[in-house]
TrEMBL record, chains A, B:
Residue stretches making up the HTH hxlR-type domain: 16-114
Entries under Pfam families matching the protein: HxlR
GO molecular function: DNA binding
Species whose genome carries this gene: Actinophytocola xinjiangensis
Keywords: DNA-binding, Transcription, Transcription regulation
Record's keyword annotation contains Nuclease: no
Protein name: Transcriptional regulator
Amino acid sequence: MEVTVQVSDPEVARLCEARQILNRVGDKWSIAVIYALDGATLRFTELRREVHGISQRMLTATLRTLERDGLVRRTVHPVVPPRVDYELTDLGNTLRGTVCTLMTWAVNHADDIAKARAEYDARPAS
Amino acid sequence: MEVTVQVSDPEVARLCEARQILNRVGDKWSIAVIYALDGATLRFTELRREVHGISQRMLTATLRTLERDGLVRRTVHPVVPPRVDYELTDLGNTLRGTVCTLMTWAVNHADDIAKARAEYDARPAS
DNA sequence: CTGGATCCTATAGGATACTG
DNA sequence: CAGTATCCTATAGGATCCAG
């Protein structure tokens, strides 16, 4: 979408801009791809194996966007068959820690969330 | 959607589950709402003012999901006019730090990303 | 192997109007 | 005030086929 919102308060504008960025980075696959590239250089197919369930189309799209945003570096080796490597850029690396923290948080609290959902769903419809 | 994927490898299964959770938490508005509730108890309308651009419908939906996931506590005061307070639960608080880090990261690197995009778009179409 | 191009569907999410 | 209900559109994203 990439909608630009005009707001008078510059602080608010910054937060809105930040939200847009996070919406991008936090889309369905980006986090998983960044997580997979944590400290590793991977080829397209390797990434596809690593990020289970991603379609070819979305892996391509996600990588393109991450590359455009300067988070991932794409290196094409002029060989046959083609070989393309993906790795995090310096900017991408500034996200590594947080993304890993996020993943760990999700893994560690999956049960809590599942439990909370079960309780919520079991509550009598007010 | 809430698709359950069957995978043999339990480690992979955990990561897939984590991804689903992050997809939820990382949806268009959740991060912003959690960020707004960072250390604060807010009413519906206050939240709406705080999270600029969110529609009433999406604020309600986001809050419901966060409540169901056990991240946000909703307290209804039986008064007229109605008063409903929202705050982070203990579980929600375990996300505060990371969410704030994320927001800060986005604010701090918005320029880098904008620059990267401009460069990418200026590149000759390979 | 690494994609691009197409097609198609489900869904997210905005706008608006109504209610206890 | 704090929602719910309805309607509608854009878009995300999967499946599939093709290509250098």
